[in-house]
């Protein structure tokens, strides 16, 4: 079975949960015998390695075909990088800033490597996110035309038009994978154009995969999609090797409570600070770290000062792979106070690193794990109480740490991939059953 | 003639309010009055009042042929007093018929029997005083919290003068033996042991309204046939949580009609009669002793203590609590003693159980917490405040201790000084005499 997958980000350059999830799932699928994945990723060229990307004239989009070999698996998958400014999580405004920057860099000499092919297509290049999405969908059409596959799998809204285009040209069934909706990302301020793209994708899809029942319910309630068409497949985590030792030593004796993620409205950073204030009122010997960046970061720095806890709250800025591991190794408790989190892979990574976690009920991951403290994101008193409890009563800390590690080690991408595989088979079977009718017509 | 021995457990804990860590040292009131009162009203209306009414009617109707026994905890009685005095009245009416036996318990349905023998004995006494006060009877049969039992506990209970004790007819204890006979304690055979008939008791309390049960629906006739099935057995011990009537098995399931019908069908069968635990002990001879080296209870599949002391959170809470018992002996303050009692209620530990995760079975007693962790943190916050208060009553910091020692030293010094002086004086006198 060949799968044409429109996804995001491959290592080493992973900026968030979506990339991690795409990678993990693809890796899991590669362990299933009869599956071959052709992976298509947009490659933004803001701060990235530009050697493989030609900054374009009017109607050239650079495409490079690469091979990715997974360890522990003799299979490798082909993946195609499409030159595109699309990166997950950007808002329209951020996108504008990004593309303006690129224009000034546009007039650089272009080197084309041997493994790079180039597709020609008609269309214009514009500094508009929606045009870019459209652009991408045209590339998708070309790719779909030139490759053989049985099923299309598209991750999150930016790739939905590409998925739809591929479906239209090939007639193959489309599966869309919803990692988040605009309701989660925008904190309630829905962008109607994004909503429409999402809704169209959901309607065109033969089946929808959601990362949690929380997201599944949003799709049923807010997008009006038939529940029979939606299946939840939980994310998992890549097992980590035991001997990953932190290079950094903790410089302070104090206990460390960590917030790890983008500092945006979706992640509820202000609730973390409020809980920190409450805890600091009652106990010494504890520090709070906000690791990550985002549009609310400056507000949070200011807020910490207002609350007069700035000496105990530390901001690290954006952390990359190893730094994340170091941060987790230093942490005694991780808090994820997300307001609306379709899944939330960070707590699983923390549990893997032996860090007890406190998560909000408003996260998909809370449907999966049992050995975690769960609170409502708005209830900062309860959150503070949970932090205090974990820091002061050793038995609960030990219990959650040990059992949590055990629990998360059993959440494998292999199993998630198996569930996805089953959905593939179901959808293909349905398609086959319907086929005689359509040929008769 | 076979005896049916009914014992109903009546217990309510004083549930804690959400006690946040900010409250530690600031607020010393721990109870969720609203929840406790609401819950008491609900259960009084659904269970205690209608069930007591049925029992009273049956006792009057069968004039001495129908009898039951109750074990009512101290915390339940305190809550009747606070929130539902009419329930207490209805129990008193039952007591007056003389057909109802009241059993001994621990005052706050505690786990003291596992930790502190002196405390255990005190709690039993406190409970029995309360029973004497309200029902004017002195219990002679003991039923421990959640039927917790081992040979040593039985021995303590025997030493306190009780004639019999109730516990679980746990399979792993009985082996091939039947619970339907009288047994005795292995250390002190004077203490008779009544064992719960697990299957028949649970038919009533758990399965009665379950439509997926192969024996559904359960009628009085069917039940009497089952009780009569084994011709040799002597006693059928039906020990049931009282809230099975009307709460766990709602009135709509027909449980009250079943109860109304049961005496008639039983007595008409000609092979059954009703007896209280002390009547059973008077009438039957123990067939053997029962050997229980490891503690048993009536909880869950395991029938052990793992529902209360099965994970490290429960162990920490339990050990921290009972580490205070020596100090508490010095405290006379009424509020402190009340909180000390209520802190020991086993339900608090039950709420911290993480077993539900693994066996998927729901612990169905009313649980005010979302998770065992929440239960634990809340309990530890309350306990932390209690410890702070206790320290003000019984100072323990080292400065205080040193001061006490210094005082002692000074006293001894004075004494030595006095004795040396006396010695010298005597020597003087002796010397003088010599001269």
Describe what this molecule looks like in 3D.
- The complex is a heterodimer of chains A (441) and B (435).
- Chain A has 14 helices and 15 strands.
- Chain A is an alpha/beta fold.
- In chain A, helix 1 packs across helix 14 and helix 12 crosses helix 13.
- The longest helix of chain A has 28 residues.
- Chain B is an alpha/beta fold and 435 residues long.
- Chain B has 2 domains: 289 residues, 7-stranded beta/alpha barrel (Alpha-Beta Barrel), CATH 3.20.110.20; 31 residues.
- Chain B has 17 helices and 12 strands.
- In chain B, the strands form 3 sheets. In chain B, strands 1, 2, 3, 8 and 11 form a 5-stranded parallel β-sheet that branches. A 5-stranded mixed β-sheet of chain B has the order 4-5-7-6-12.
- The longest helix of chain B is centred in the C-terminal third of the chain and has 37 residues.
- Classes of the chains: A alpha/beta (441), B alpha/beta (435).
- At the A-B interface, helix 8, helix 12 and helix 13 of A face helix 11 and helix 16 of B.
Question: Concise description?
Answer:
The complex is a heterodimer of chains A (441) and B (435). Chain A contains 14 helices and 15 strands. Chain A is of the alpha/beta class and 441 residues long.
């Amino acid at each position: 079975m060949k799968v044409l997958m429109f996804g995001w980000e491959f290592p080493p350059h992973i900026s968030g949960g979506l990339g991690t999830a795409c990678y993990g799932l693809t890796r899991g699928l590669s362990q299933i015998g009869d599956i071959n994945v052709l992976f298509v990723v947009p490659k933004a060229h803001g701060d990235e390695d530009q050697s493989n990307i030609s900054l374009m004239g009017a109607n050239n989009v650079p495409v490079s075909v690469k091979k990715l070999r997974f360890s522990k698996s003799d299979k490798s998958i082909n993946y195609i990088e499409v030159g595109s400014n699309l990166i997950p999580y950007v808002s329209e405004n951020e996108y504008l800033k990004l593309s303006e920057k690129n224009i000034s860099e546009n007039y650089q000499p272009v080197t084309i490597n041997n493994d790079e092919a180039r597709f020609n297509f008609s269309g214009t290049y514009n500094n508009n996110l929606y045009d870019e999405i459209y652009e991408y969908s045209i590339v998708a059409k070309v790719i779909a035309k030139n490759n053989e596959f049985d099923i299309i799998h598209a991750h999150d809204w930016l790739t939905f038009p590409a998925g739809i285009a591929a479906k239209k040209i090939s007639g193959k069934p489309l599966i869309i994978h919803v990692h988040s909706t605009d309701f989660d990302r925008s904190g309630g301020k829905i962008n109607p154009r994004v909503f429409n793209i999402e809704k169209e994708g959901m309607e065109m899809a033969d089946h929808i995969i959601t990362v949690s029942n929380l997201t599944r319910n949003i799709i049923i309630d807010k997008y009006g999609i038939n529940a029979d068409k939606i299946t939840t497949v939980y994310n998992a985590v890549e097992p980590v090797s035991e001997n990953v030792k932190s290079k950094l030593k903790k410089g302070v004796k104090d206990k460390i409570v960590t917030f790890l993620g983008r500092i945006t409205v979706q992640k509820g950073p202000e609730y973390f600070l409020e809980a920190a204030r409450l805890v600091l009122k009652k106990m010494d010997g504890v520090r709070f770290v906000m690791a990550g960046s985002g549009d609310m970061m400056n507000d949070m720095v200011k807020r910490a000062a207002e609350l007069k806890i700035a000496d105990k709250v530390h901001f690290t800025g954006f952390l990359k792979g190893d730094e994340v591991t170091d941060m987790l190794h230093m942490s005694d408790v991780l808090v994820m106070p997300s307001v609306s989190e379709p899944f939330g892979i960070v707590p699983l990574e923390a549990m893997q690193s032996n860090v007890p976690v406190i998560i909000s009920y408003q996260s998909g991951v809370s449907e999966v794990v049992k050995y975690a403290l769960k609170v409502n994101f708005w209830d900062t008193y309860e959150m503070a109480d949970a932090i205090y409890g974990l820091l002061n009563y050793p038995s609960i800390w030990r219990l959650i740490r040990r059992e949590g590690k055990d629990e998360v080690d059993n959440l494998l991408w292999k199993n998630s991939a198996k569930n996805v595989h089953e959905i593939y088979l179901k959808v293909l079977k349905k398609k086959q059953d319907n086929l005689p009718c359509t040929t008769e017509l | 003639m076979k005896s049916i021995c009914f014992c109903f457990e009546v217990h309510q804990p004083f549930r804690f309010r959400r006690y946040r860590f900010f409250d530690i040292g600031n607020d010393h009131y721990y109870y969720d009055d609203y929840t406790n009162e609401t819950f008491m009203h609900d259960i009084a209306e659904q269970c205690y009042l209608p069930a007591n009414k049925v029992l009273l009617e049956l006792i009057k109707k069968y004039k001495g042929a129908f009898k039951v026994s109750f074990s009512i905890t101290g915390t339940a009685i305190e809550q009747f007093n606070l929130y539902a005095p009419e329930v207490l009245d209805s129990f008193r009416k039952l007591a007056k018929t003389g057909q109802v036996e009241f059993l001994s318990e621990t005052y706050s349905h505690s786990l003291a029997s596992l930790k502190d023998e002196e405390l255990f004995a005190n709690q039993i006494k406190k409970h029995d005083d309360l029973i004497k006060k309200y029902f004017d009877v002195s219990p002679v049969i003991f039923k421990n919290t959640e039927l917790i039992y081992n040979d040593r506990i039985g021995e303590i209970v025997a030493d306190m003068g009780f004639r019999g004790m109730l516990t679980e007819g746990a399979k792993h204890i009985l082996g091939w033996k039947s619970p339907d006979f009288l047994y005795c304690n292995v250390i002190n055979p004077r203490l008779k042991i009544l064992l719960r008939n697990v299957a028949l008791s649970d038919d009533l309390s758990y399965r009665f309204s379950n439509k997926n049960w192969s024996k559904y629906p359960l009628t009085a006739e069917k039940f009497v046939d089952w009780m009569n099935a084994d011709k040799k057995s002597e006693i059928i011990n039906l020990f049931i949580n009282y809230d099975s009537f009307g709460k766990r098995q709602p009135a709509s399931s027909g449980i009250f009609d079943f109860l109304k019908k049961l005496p008639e069908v039983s007595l008409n069968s000609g092979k059954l009669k009703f007896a209280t635990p002390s009547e059973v002990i008077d009438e039957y001879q123990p067939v053997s002793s029962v050997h229980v080296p490891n503690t048993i209870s009536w909880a869950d599949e395991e029938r052990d203590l793992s529902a209360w002391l099965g994970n490290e959170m429960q162990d920490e809470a339990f050990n921290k609590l009972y580490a205070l018992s020596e100090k508490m002996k010095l405290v006379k303050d009424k509020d402190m003693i009340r909180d000390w009692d209520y802190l020991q209620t086993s339900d608090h530990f039950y709420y911290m159980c993480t077993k539900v995760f693994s066996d998927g079975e729901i612990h169905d007693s009313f649980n005010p917490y979302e998770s065992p962790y929440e239960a634990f943190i809340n309990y530890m916050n309350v306990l932390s405040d209690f410890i702070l208060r206790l320290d003000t009553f019984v100072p323990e910091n080292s400065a205080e201790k040193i001061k006490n020692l210094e005082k002692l030293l000074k006293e001894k010094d004075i004494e030595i000084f006095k004795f040396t002086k006396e010695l010298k004086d005597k020597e003087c006198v002796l010397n003088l005499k010599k001269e």
